[in-house]
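Dear colleague,

Thank you for sharing your sequence with our group. We've completed the structure prediction you requested, and as agreed, I am returning the results in plain text so they can be pasted directly into your records. Please verify that the sequence below matches your submission; if there's any discrepancy, let me know and we will rerun it promptly.
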Amino acid sequence: MTLPFEKLVDMPQATVHLLRHGEVHNPDAVLYGRLPEFHLSELGRQMALALAEHFHNRAAQGANIVHLAASPLTRAQETAQPIADALDLDIITESRIIEAVNYFEGLHVSKAELLRPKHWPMLRNPFRPSWGEPYKQQAARVIAAVQDARLRAIALGGADAEAILVSHQLPIWATRLSAEGKPLWHDPRKRECTLTSVTSLVFDDGGNLVRVEYSEPAAALLPGASSTPGA
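Please find the predicted structure tokens below.
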């Protein structure tokens, strides 16, 4: 099988960080998906500030961070803003890293809701999945955005340049699975992609993936944070 990224041991030339946004104000606990005007909660804003401090500190230590983009959704833009302020970067809106389309968007997704017969046709194929945008399609669009961000970072900053893309849990996770050559079907409860986590794709000078790194700069703020899906 041909993978979108080849794993080679080489000197890295560019890194693209995929950031998940902070906690969202969602008192009705709906799957908000691509719905507009879902803003960060107060905790989410604190998470975004923690991310900004993390990248500011990295830049102060020599990290060459030159490009910042975010999904067009409000929660991603609000997470990106403190980073933009800290690094003096403009936020480029990148539609390819938007949240996945989901049939259940706007609903409070519970076991009782899923058992309603009208939803059963949408649950027929969890491997695709049948209730929303195919995992392969999500990974493909994000990978394309990642590669463009890699090239943009190199053009702006040269060797060892870094780019930041603020996105959403499922597209990030599908991209990581694809990059690592793993099956895209998975148990959503086992995704390693917490709120304001950083999934870093490190590339060699040929655009091939050298390694994937994962960190949680706002880990101290995660206890008690909302775990509602659709983020």
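Summary note from our side: The domain at 12-221 is CATH 3.40.50.1240 (Rossmann fold).

Kind regards,
the structure core
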